[in-house]
Amino acid sequence: MQLTNVTVKEAFAACVNNKNIILDVRTVAQYVQGAATGAVCMEFSDLNELALTKLSKEINYYIMCQRGKVSVQAISQLRKLGFNNLYHIDAGYDEWLKQKLPTEIPTETPKANTHDLRYLRHHQLPGFGRIAQNKLQKAHILQIGAGGLGSSCGLYLAAAGVGQITIIDDDVVQLSNLQRQIIHTTDSINTLKVASAKQQLLSLNPEITINAIAARLDKNNVDKLVENADIIIDGSDNLSTRYMVNDSCIKYHKPLVYAALYQYEAQISVFNLQQPDAPCLRCLFPQTKGFEPDNCSTAGVLGVVPGLAGIMQASEAIKLITKVGEVLTGKLLICDLLDNSFRTIKYAKANSCPKH
Prior knowledge:
This protein is α/β, with parallel strands linked by helices. Helix content is 36%, strand content 19%.
């Protein structure tokens, strides 16, 4: 294929004229960090879809990529679409920078690619990328509680792009919650926690769906909610609810991400009940009739402790969805913020467990 090659300086001089435009065919991840001033940015992979509607065959296009290789393919593709006034910029954007020619951060692109920009750092992450991000987008998480654990967990799941999050909680926001429940604000006091949480999460990421259920989780609704979700986040604050959720997750083979708090300490684990040999909550903590440990409202808690634990729950959920990394199945992570100790205790499925 015959090319009309130009240097970056020749392209810069030519594109002072409005009938000559630099067309940057690099990826979003590349051009959002900077592009030639005045360039039109359109990913090579989008040319077939966008070129005929967004570009003009009357204009001379100077095609740029990062180093001058993808731009050759772009010219070939554009010629097939009927574009003939094309010039190839040798050495690409790397050479543009080397010659200290003017650059800018693009504010507009032919395709409103806000989705890619939002998750750009995930796309760049080795071993994660678009494949893992797409899995998050298709996932449905049930989050039990919109309190201390649910605050940080919900915020990071929403930010990560989990496509659907269902939150159930029947409580209202109180002033004493705000020391640790960072999803709520002073203006949220006396409003339903699920309504406050939904507003905050959609403000953070309007691309996702939030189902807010202002109800108490009980034996009448737990099975339906668990069955319809991919992963369950336990943000409850009492053992009776935890055991009920655990038993439903066993019934429907759903992964359960567990966290519990006590003053300066957090515990996190994953009961990956999709696996037949995975231990459950009852294996870790056999139920003792009538026993109910102190919760935050009676024992107190350092405000950052539920924040840390909730973030860890979000991390475990993301790993479960994407299959990236190792999760805490059969392991109890104990974090003590008084002495900055982090230790892991291994445990196994108990033969005496009454549920599986």
